[in-house]
Amino acid sequence: xxxxxxxxxxxxxxxxxxxxxxxxxxxxxxxxxxxxxxxxxxxxxxxxxxxxxxxxxxxxxxxxxxxxxxxxxxxxxxxxxxxxxxxxxxxxxxxxxxxxxxxxxxxxxxxxxxxxxxxxxxxxxxxxxxxxxxxxxxxxxxxxxxxxxxxxxxxxxxxxxxxxxxxxxxxxxxxxxxxxxxxxxxxxxxx
Length: 191
Description:
By secondary structure, this protein is an all-alpha fold. The protein folds into 2 domains: 8-58, Arc Repressor Mutant, subunit A (Orthogonal Bundle); 77-188, Tetracycline Repressor, domain 2 (Orthogonal Bundle), CATH 1.10.357. The chain has helices at residues 9-23, 30-37, 41-48, 51-75, 80-93, 96-101, 104-112, 117-143, 153-173, 177-188. Helix 5 runs parallel beside helix 9. The longest helix is centred in the last third of the chain and has 27 residues, at 117-143.
C-alpha cells in the first residue's frame, strides 16, 4: 500500500519558487530544498523528479501566475494608456520584497541563458505570450481612439515587453523612483 503524502504539492512548489528566486538555480542544493521545503529527499524525487524538474515546474508556475496577474491588472484599467502606466509603476513601486528580488523569470534568464536550452525556449515563449497580450491590449486602444491606428502595433508591443522587463531589472537596483517615473513617461511617449 502506497504511503499518503504529508504535504500539498502546490504549497511545496510555491516554497521552492521562493527559494530558487532568492538564491538562484545553481546556488540552491538538493539539501537546501529538503531543509527549506521540510520534506524528505525521497519525497522530493518521487513527486518532482529532482532539482531541475522542480525548478522547471516552479518557473512555469510563476510564469503562469505572472501572466495571469498582468492580464487581470490590465483588463481592470479604465484607460489603455493609464493601464500601461500603472503596470510600469507597479513594476518599480510594488511590494518591496518582490522589488528587491526582481522578476524570477528575468533572474533565471540572466543566470541560465545561453547554457540552458529549456530556459531559452521558455524565455522565447514568454516573450511571445507577453507581446501577444500587449498586442491585444493595444488593439483595444486603437478601437477606442486612445492609440493612433498608424502605429505598428506589433513593434510597439515588442517595445512594451522589453521596457517592462527592463524596468523590473533596473527597479531592483535603482532606489531613485522619481528618475524611474520620468523614464516611464518617456517610454509611454511611443504611444
